[in-house]
Amino acid sequence: MTEEATKQEISKRLEVIRSRIQKTGVDPDKVKLIAVTKGWGAEVVSAALEAGLSDFGENYAKELLQKATLEYPRSPSWHFIGIIRRNKVKALGRYVKMWHSVSRIDEGRWIAGVAPGSDVLVQPNSVALSSEVPQGSASPRNGCAFSEVPQLVESLKKMGLSVLGLMVVAPTASSETSARDIKLSFSKVAKLAGELGLKELSMGMTDDLEQAVEVGATMIRVGRGLFGERTTTVGNY
User: Fold this and answer.
1) Domain that holds residue 138
2) Whether the predicted model's global pTM rises above the 0.70 cut
3) Does residue 205 contact residue 220 with C-beta atoms inside 8 Å?
């Protein structure tokens, strides 16, 4: 697919996403769309920039670094949304605008050490929000215990980091997890953010963005809804 064709396809899909947001009664311009380019090449970033997008999310350090060092029609804003690893933070620090997935004090220390004052979001564990997994069960996803969020927020602030809000991945969809369950999960996160005086909420992806936007998401992370199914294997940090 040529870059121009990619741009046209992304533009069409972007309009679909904006329409989905608008149908919830929320102004699409009030929700920041983070284009998740995991598994896609740099040509997709260029095309997405040409289509009007500016914020890009990556799960893996290697992919973000490969893309961030290239030249584009204009400068992208990079969001790191994956598991934070100590040996990658130094290299990422010069490129990452916002760290979405801080879930431990050590991660905050690593970031503060290489990029003082960075914008960060705290990630609670989605298992703590799920009706299908008992509290205290082992989690397949990153994130801190829900009860630990207030203390972690305070600790990160004391390090000089700018804690802007919370990020969450909804409980994995299944026959037992309804749209209502997912919305309730997002509502719990939104309520906690309000109690802590945090304004940003990074939650909602291609399949559940409506439920997130309806309860106050200020950022949604969309990959497949913009770019289609991935054509490359991912997983290298």
Assistant:
1) 3-227
2) yes
3) yes
Tell me the pLDDT tens digit for each residue of 167-192. Answer: 999 876 554 557 778 888 899 999 99
- The answer to whether 122 touches 149, Cβ cutoff 8 Å, is yes
**End-to-end Cα, the chain, rounded Å:** 27
Task: Categorize the per-residue pLDDT at 133 as very low, low, confident or very high, splitting at 50, 70 and 90.
Answer: very low
Residue 47 included in any domain:
yes
What's the pLDDT at 232? Answer: 59
Task: Report yes or no on 81 lying in a domain.
Answer: yes
Residue 233 in domain: no
Distance, in Å, from the CA atom of 34 to the CA atom of 103, rounded to the nearest integer, reads 20
Residue-wise over 2-38: b if at least 16 C-beta within 10 A, else e? Answer: eeeebbebbbebbeebeebbeebeeebeebbbbbbbb
Strand pairing report for 96-102 and 162-168: unpaired
Give me the number of domains the chain comprises.
1
> Does residue 10 belong to any structural domain of this protein?
yes
Give the pLDDT confidence of 5-38 residue by residue, as tens digits: 699 999 999 999 999 999 999 999 999 999 999 9
CATH number, domain containing residue 32: 3.20.20.10
From CA 182, how far away is CA 176, in angstroms rounded?
A: 11
Q: Which amino acid is at 45?
A: V
